[in-house]
Specification:
Blueprint lengths: L1 H12 L1 H18 L1 H25 L7 E2 L9 E2 L2 E2 H22 L2 E2 L17 E2 L3 H4 L2 H23 L10 E2 L11 H24 L15 H24 L3 H22 L21
Helix pairs in contact: 2-3, 2-4, 2-8, 3-4, 3-7, 4-6, 4-8, 6-7, 6-8, 8-9
């Protein structure tokens, strides 16, 4: 009963986390279907939780950090880890996955009639959601990069949580060189992304097709991939907004300058101004290619 009450209080204390989580569930089920969405969430949450549980006791993989427990009577903690914290990794990894898909999914020529979906304009690439491509090594590596990349914005502003509604929930005993964040923390994020997404890819390849709209070389999923990209930029905008709101202008400008080139490449990709991957899944090797 006490855990249920604390879970309810967690919803009240961290509503923004659950808004992003609901957005993730909505976006992911459209792209992956409910079965794969559930697996994606569970694998990522469990991986993040184990890594956080380990790090606050051994320093691996995020480096040494500690929770202050200042909100332990206001929100749910599981073995010393705030429930909302490890929960956040799921929607952040999914958003990063969609951003990687946008750059790496092969595109079909759009010489036919314009699609009905407004999110799938005829001037945009028609992304082909082929199973062998979406679980390939290039997608895995680029997802991990984008996943680690967004923590460049998230962690420094979270570390200053006492200046906004997050609260002072954790600290590093040895502050790092990047606005107080140790470089080991970013290595830990890369490890979580690599382990969780690799595990999900193994499960994805073992599942039978969920439905015709999530499988096949002729399946166009441009609009649903863009929803996930929108989630990525929604989280980014939220954290940058908080950064400027608390007066950390140098940190905020650093974040803007870091993501400006990526955003420019994103728009060029959508405008068909970047070289697009061809529609040959054999060019996207992955572990399944040995089977």
């Amino acid at each position: 009963m006490e855990s249920a009450v604390l879970l309810f209080h967690t919803f009240l204390l961290r509503p923004y986390v659950f808004v992003f989580l609901l957005a993730f569930l909505f976006c992911a089920q459209r792209l992956l279907g409910w079965r794969r969405t559930g697996l994606f969430f569970l694998v990522t949450w469990f991986t993040a939780f184990v890594c956080e549980f380990s790090s606050i006791r051994t320093g691996i993989p995020f480096g040494w950090y500690f929770y202050t427990n200042s909100t332990i009577d206001q929100e749910l903690f599981i073995f010393g880890v705030p429930f909302f914290d490890s929960l956040s990794f799921s929607f952040l990894l999914y958003a990063s996955y969609c951003l990687a898909l946008l750059f790496l999914l092969p595109a079909r020529a759009t010489d036919g009639p314009a699609p009905v979906n407004v999110l799938q304009r005829s001037t945009w690439p028609a992304f082909m959601f082929h199973a062998k491509v979406r679980t390939s090594w290039p997608v895995l590596k680029l997802t991990v990069l984008f996943f680690t990349f967004i923590d460049i914005i998230i962690d420094p502003v979270a570390l200053r949580g006492e200046r906004w509604f997050l609260g002072k929930i954790y600290y590093y005993p040895d502050p790092g060189v990047y606005y107080g964040v140790p470089l080991a923390n970013f290595a830990g994020w890369a490890a979580v992304g690599l382990i969780a997404l690799s595990g999900y890819f193994v499960l994805d390849r073992r599942l039978s097709p969920a439905s015709t709209h999530t499988e096949g070389a002729d399946t166009v999923m441009t609009g649903n991939v863009l929803l996930g990209v929108g989630l990525y930029y929604g989280v980014l905008a939220f954290n940058l907004g908080v950064t400027f709101w608390i007066g950390e202008y140098q940190l905020g400008m650093t974040g803007l300058l870091i993501f400006l080139p990526l955003s420019a490449l994103l728009f060029l990709r959508l405008l068909n101004r970047l070289p697009a991957p061809s529609l040959h899944p054999a060019q996207y090797p992955g572990p399944e290619s040995n089977q």
